[in-house]
Specification:
single chain; 42% strand
């Protein structure tokens, strides 16, 4: 885990094809005893900041322990689990929006 820019957290993740992509952590939530991260690609975060009212889609990853006991991030394959966690993040993010 890497921190920069006023405590913003960034992670470099490796996809299934071995490509490294930097993501920014935008939220965490616990659900049914599991910890979930909402993340956006770092370059998308920069573009959204530059555009007025910019928005970008986020990915949801679950934190699990690997065989060595280290934390690892995995995709959420179960549709019901994904929908429930996405609803929690959507509620959290909509509360953060300030309406004029």
């Amino acid at each position: 885990m890497e921190e920069r820019n006023n405590e913003r957290e960034f992670f470099t993740l490796t996809d299934e094809e071995g490509n490294e992509i930097e993501f920014e952590l935008i939220g965490t939530t616990e659900y049914k005893g599991n910890l979930y991260f909402a993340m956006i690609p770092a370059d998308a975060a920069q573009k959204a900041e530059e555009e007025e009212g910019g928005f970008c889609e986020y990915v949801i990853l679950r934190v699990e322990k690997d065989e060595n006991g280290d934390d690892t991030l995995v995709t959420v394959d179960d549709d019901d689990e994904f929908d429930d966690v996405a609803d929690r993040f959507d509620d959290m993010f909509s509360e953060e929006i300030e309406y004029d």
